[in-house]
Design a protein that fits this description.
Layout: E1 7-9, E2 21-25, H1 36-48, E3 52-58, H2 67-74, H3 77-86, E4 90-95, H4 105-110, E5 113-119, H5 126-133, E6 140-143, H6 161-171, H7 205-210, H8 228-242, H9 246-249, H10 262-266, H11 272-281, H12 286-309, H13 321-329, H14 341-345, H15 352-364, H16 369-382, H17 386-400, H18 407-415, H19 438-442, H20 447-457
């Protein structure tokens, strides 16, 4: 398996010839199969006749740490422990609950490792993590298992979907299909390692989460549950029941007509390769398949391209010149509908459709993609500046959304301010940014049923 275009050597440190194992630090690709990073680590271990240790940690102090995110991650731990043991791989999971718990676990494990492999993920805290481990005195590799196309295959930031689409389409036919997990030759699933370990079972998750010094106000989702098994269950439901008419139902928030797979992709419980394979193998109508694959490949990989190559992806500095200019021109426009952040977060604005979108986010951990556009646009007019609006949207998304803190999230919010879009008609506050109203959007789907549903889940 040639992974050269997905592997980056993070330092020039020598291999530790006295190492007892190869170490894979699993940060984002939280799965035991369909994983290029895992396969690369197995390759290195097999070449050296060494066992493999897979380490996954969850700390309490990452930005927006809360019950919802913690629970979703923990729901995928027990199944990985079983799967890795079957493969002869030593899997270590450690939950750092507070400041008193042991820390620097990766560095401790690295002392006995020959090599270290980790995930190449282009945003949130992962780039900082990788900069830090690159300073360790052993060779470190990062592997890109994010998309159908390696991020390195597109060497610069793309302007929009129309510019990246033909490039992706040219690359796709040359890509491998199913990712077959390699067999580890040196099996040792019970290898002793110098690292604290947390045993996770379904019955223990609630107590484990409650013991952590995190935000307990954002409760675990009752609709969406983490783990590869749950992700595959949702994928099967989507392919069997929704995909055949996806092109017709994807913009109807009042029904179960979209994939709802973004959280499983974000946390790496599912790979995009597995999702695409299931879609392409299905007998669904061509229109449904094409509509989904446009979003799952072109639009998704456009967001990874943004966060890979634009260092300002988490600010308005990432916007094109025309968007920055129109915001400068309209910065002093009167904003008669200003609302404070607390009112907005509590979904207590005067706009019932917007409130419904926010309720769905707060209560379930997801928001339908169609109303997400309106959700972002309205906040622009409700805050004193574009910068305040952007910061509030990022905060709300990353706090409540299971698929927050993701390239798709940052690209989606930036789209509300003109990223990957074009100038529209001039108007107050928005300038030439695309404008949306609840009235016009609400006429395109059954807004009444959607609003009622969000009231029901908030009871």
């Amino acid at each position: 398996m040639d992974l050269s275009n997905r592997v980056t050597k993070l330092n020039d440190s020598p291999e530790n010839s006295k190492g007892h194992y190869v170490l894979y630090w699993m940060q984002m690709f939280k799965r035991a199969s369909h994983n290029y990073a895992l396969n690369f680590a197995i390759e290195l271990a097999n070449e050296r006749g060494l066992p493999l240790v897979v380490y996954e940690g969850l700390k309490f102090y990452y930005p927006w740490a809360n019950d919802r995110i913690h629970t979703f991650v923990l729901e995928g731990v027990a199944e990985k422990a079983v799967e890795f043991a079957k493969r002869g791989i030593r899997y270590v999971f450690y939950l750092q609950r507070n400041k008193r718990d042991p820390k620097n676990t990766v560095a401790r494990l690295a002392k006995e490792a020959a090599l270290l492999v980790t995930d190449d993920y282009p945003c949130f805290i992962i780039p900082r993590h990788n900069e830090k481990i690159a300073k360790l005195p052993l060779r470190v590799f990062a592997v890109d298992a994010n998309g159908m196309v390696p991020m390195s295959a597109l060497p610069k930031e793309e302007f929009a979907a129309r510019t990246i689409r033909p490039k992706i389409n040219r690359l796709l036919p040359d890509l491998p299909g199913r990712i077959v997990t390699l067999r580890l030759k040196k099996s040792n699933p019970h290898l002793e390692v110098d690292c604290p370990e947390t045993v996770v079972s379904e019955a223990r998750i609630e107590k484990l989460v409650s013991d952590c010094d995190i935000d307990h106000s954002v409760k675990a989702s009752t609709l969406y549950h983490g783990g590869t098994a749950n992700g595959r269950k949702r994928l099967k439901h989507f392919v069997d029941n929704i995909l055949p008419y996806y092109d017709e139902t994807r913009n109807e928030p009042s029904v179960d007509g979209s994939s709802r797979l973004s959280s499983y992709l974000h946390f790496g419980f599912l790979s995009i390769q597995e999702v695409v394979e299931a879609v392409e193998r299905s007998s669904a109508r061509k229109a449904g398949k094409e509509a989904f694959l446009e979003e799952a490949i072109v639009r998704r990989e456009l967001s990874f391209n943004l966060t890979r190559y634009n260092p300002h992806y988490d600010s308005l500095k990432a916007l094109p010149a025309w968007a920055l200019k129109t915001m400068r021109d309209h910065a002093d426009d009167k904003r008669p509908d200003l609302l404070d952040a607390e009112t907005i977060e509590a979904a207590q604005t005067y706009d019932e459709l917007w409130n419904a979108a926010q309720r769905e986010l707060v209560e379930t951990g997801e928001m339908h993609n169609y109303v997400r556009m309106l959700w972002g646009k309205k906040v622009i007019a409700w805050q004193r500046s574009y910068e305040m609006a952007f910061e509030l949207l990022v905060h709300l998304n990353n706090k409540y959304a299971l698929d927050g803190r993701d390239p798709n999230s940052y690209a989606g919010i930036l789209w509300c301010f003109g990223k990957h879009d074009r100038p529209w008609f001039e108007r107050e506050i928005f300038g030439t940014l695309r404008y949306m109203t609840s009235g016009s959007m609400g006429r395109k789907f059954n807004a009444k049923n959607y609003i009622e549903w969000t009231h029901e889940i908030a009871q």
